[in-house]
Write a structure and sequence with these properties.
Oligomer: heterodimer
Strand order of the largest sheet of chain A: 2-1-3-4-6-5-7-8
CATH class of chain A: Alpha Beta
CATH topology of chain A: Rossmann fold
Order of helices and strands of chain A: HEHEHEHHEHEHEHHEEHH
Shape of chain B: globular
Strand content of chain A: 5-15%
Strand content of chain B: 15-25%
Radius of gyration of chain A: 19 Å
Structural class of chain B: alpha+beta
CATH architecture of chain A: 3-Layer(aba) Sandwich
Largest sheet of chain B: 5 strands, mixed
Order of helices and strands of chain B: EEHEEEHHHEEHEEEEH
Strand order of the largest sheet of chain B: 2-1-5-3-4
Number of helices of chain A: 11
């Protein structure tokens, strides 16, 4: 679906669920992702969103960018609040209230998903609530000033783990959150990127239609934290996919399908080079990343081939 | 400033701009009306008949397709009266008879509680197309190529490239596959070719290979069309957007 972007943009809904005028940085990939997610979901949704960039930039009192019911939760409990809303709707229906169909959606950044809210998400997946969890992954705590999270990739320089004479940035590899979601045995898990808007819209629509817990992981390029020019957002998102660092795939009931499988992967250097947070990497470290990415991509391909 | 009118839909007094259709006003206010042939970016066609609502005016009522009917001052509209439901059931039954195996139609019918009639069509067992004409209108209005259109009159009508041969005007952009509400038109990319196909026609396109990274990225015919339309130099699309400096 990725090449469809030439005439089909005119066929995407013009209704904005996430209104303009919010305070996101110039070139924010996360605002773009949320806007596309809202176009895919339509208006019959209830959103619980944990603290993070998107909560801070979109709801400065007394303004809001949201045109749908929206609840701000603490960092850790967007999945808990979503579970509660879903259970509440169910109870009201059981008691005979006639309510319109509404999808419950929880959203959070990578900090809320990978670190702080991790247990709550796991619990909600395990209990099997009918909700969609959207992770907006910009690979660090950008809102508070680029502190490392467990989503920060190997070698990236952050303010709490800076590159310099002593260290070389993040020393650990990125946690594989989609694989953890798959391990819960939930019906649908997908990765998406706003650089591939039709793919993202299709995946969110599909996830919202499926009953039961679903998980969509979106890589949101952050020019501020990744130290790139603001006009590079879309290109960096595409390079992440084409180099195999962030492959696009769906997992339906444990069955892997690659959404975009280029015949030849780009070298990871194409992706790392324009970013200031990877500026200090030596050829040896880049080679180490390349080996890891190649191996992980091959493993993913194998999973997709074996079904 | 547009003139405002007040309409009553399902007992709710709603403000609307003059010239808006009943369907637009209802959807803006969260009142569900099912449709198959409607799209907000394309001129309405009123052919699927699923969006019919009951309109009360001058002491009598009638069923009108809401995608084509503009709102008027003091209009009273009901979207879930027995007559409307009866009409929807009948429309869905005929879609089910035409496309008994189509997932979208079956799902929509199940949501409305409509069961298939015990009639079976002899010729249309595998039909997915419901003749909504969205593909033809999108190709004309959005892409500007008119490569697809209804062929054959009345009972034998089908949605196809003219005369069922691969159309020379088709550029393989896939807009028809994207907009098709029932998935009758499909598209597949692989090994340097893209195939756009339906039950009764099929066309293959060569994809452009990027001279730098070697990945295939868009149909050659489409890129040539865009290049001519916006007056780009020859060879502009030899390199994919990710490799372009």
């Amino acid at each position: 679906m990725e090449a469809l972007g030439v005439y089909a943009p005119r066929l995407v809904s013009q209704r904005q669920g996430f209104a303009s005028g919010h305070r996101a940085c110039a070139g924010c990939g996360e605002a773009l992702a949320v806007s596309l997610v809202m176009k895919a979901l339509g208006r019959n949704v209830i959103i619980s969103m944990s603290t993070g960039c998107m909560e801070v930039v979109s709801t400065l009192f007394p303004h809001t960018a949201w045109t749908v019911p929206w609840i701000h939760t603490l960092f850790e409990n967007s999945a808990i609040v979503a579970s509660g809303i879903e259970a509440g709707l169910k109870a009201l229906r059981r008691k005979g209230a006639s309510l319109p169909q509404a999808k419950v959606v929880a959203m959070g950044g990578d900090g809320a998903t990978f670190d702080i809210g991790f247990g709550a998400i796991s619990g909600a997946f395990e209990r099997g609530h009918d909700f969609l969890y959207v992770c907006l992954d910009n690979e660090a705590y950008m809102n508070t000033g680029i502190q490392r999270s467990s989503a920060t990739p190997f070698g990236a320089s952050t303010t709490t783990q800076p590159a310099g004479k002593v260290g070389m940035g993040q020393l650990t590899w990125k946690k594989n959150m989609p694989a953890i979601a798959v391990a819960h045995g939930i019906p649908y898990v997908a990765t998406a990127s706003p650089s591939y808007p039709f793919d993202l819209i299709a995946k969110v629509k599909k996830a919202a239609e499926i009953e039961g817990p679903t998980y969509v992981h979106i890589l949101s390029v952050c020019p501020t934290g990744w130290r790139i020019p603001t006009d590079m957002t879309i290109r960096i998102g595409r390079l992440a996919v084409e180099s195999g660092i962030f492959p696009l795939y769906e997992v339906e009931k444990g069955k892997y399908t690659l959404s975009y499988d280029p015949p030849k992967l780009r070298p990871v250097e194409d992706y790392l080079k324009p970013q200031g947070r990877f500026r200090h990497l030596t050829p040896e470290l880049i080679d180490k990343i390349q080996q890891r990415v190649t191996a992980e991509y091959a493993a993913l391909r194998e999973k997709a081939a074996s079904g | 400033m547009d003139k405002k009118v007040t309409v009553n839909i399902d007992g709710r007094e709603l403000k609307a701009k003059e010239g808006q259709t009943i369907l637009e006003v209802a959807r803006e206010n969260g009142i569900p009306i099912p449709t198959l042939c409607y799209h907000e970016s394309i001129t309405p066609y009123g052919v699927c008949r699923l969006c019919k609502v009951e309109v009360f005016k001058g002491g009598r009522s009638r069923l009108v397709p809401s995608c084509l009917s503009p709102v008027e001052e003091g209009l009273k509209v009901v979207t879930d009266s027995p007559q409307v439901k009866d009409n929807r059931r009948m429309v869905m039954e005929s879609f089910l008879a035409r496309c008994p195996k189509n997932e979208v139609i079956r799902k929509l019918a199940a949501e409305m509680g409509v069961k298939p009639l015990p009639v079976k069509s002899k010729h249309l067992e595998d039909e997915d197309c419901i003749l909504c004409g969205l593909c033809a209108r999108a190709c004309e209005q959005i892409v500007g190529r008119s490569a697809i259109s209804p062929v054959n009159p009345r009972m034998k009508q089908e949605q196809a490239t003219l005369s069922l041969k691969p159309s020379a005007a088709c550029i393989g952009c896939g807009t028809c596959a994207y907009i098709c509400p029932t998935g009758a038109i499909k598209m597949k990319d692989g090994d340097g070719t893209r195939v756009v196909y339906a039950r009764n026609w099929k066309k293959e396109f060569k994809l452009k290979k990027c001279q730098v990274c070697g990945n295939y990225w868009a149909p050659e015919a489409q890129l040539e069309y865009i290049r001519k339309k916006v007056n780009l130099p020859r060879g502009f699309f030899d390199v994919c957007p990710n490799c372009r400096k």
